[in-house]
Amino acid sequence: MEGQVLVQAPLPASCNCGILKAMQFTVELPDDLAGQVIPAGCEPARAALEDMAVEAYRAGRLTEHQLATVLGMDRYEMDGFLKRREVWLDDSPADLRREIEVGERLWKKRQDELASSGG
């Protein structure tokens, strides 16, 4: 006997994609493997949707914004979700240099504020 998981991915009302408002499909898993594929305590449909969506993001088929839309998360929830899934941003060396420069400027500004306030 095989278990079935119905996966639904509702599209946001702001999506301008014609009649299609959501996609549904069924995944059939052998019962003896379902427990290994779907983590204990997780809703099977949500786990399948998250797994599928994060793999599409890793493969570059979804942007971070699209991933957040599919999963119904805001940017802070998405950041935590990606970290839990060990999905890291693909920053270029120029992006990292810019982050370092901004961090150094903010650090200097804060040190100057503390020095002027006597703290």
Explain the overall architecture:
- The structure is a single chain.
- The chain is of the alpha+beta class.
- It folds into two domains: 2-88, no CATH class; 91-119.
- It has five helices and two strands.
- The chain has helices at residues 31-37, 44-58, 64-71, 75-84, 93-117; strands at 2-10, 22-30.
- The chain has a two-stranded antiparallel sheet.
- Helix 2 (44-58) packs antiparallel against helix 3.
- The protein starts with a strand and ends with a helix.
- 6% of the residues are buried.
- The mean pLDDT is 80.
Strand residue content: 15-25%
Indicate the overall shape. Answer: elongated
Low-confidence stretches: none
Give the helix tally: 5
Structural class estimated from helices and strands = alpha+beta
Number of domains: 2
What average pLDDT do the residues reach? 80
Give a brief rundown of this model.
The chain has 5 helices and 2 strands; from the N terminus they run ββααααα. With 119 residues, it is an alpha+beta fold.
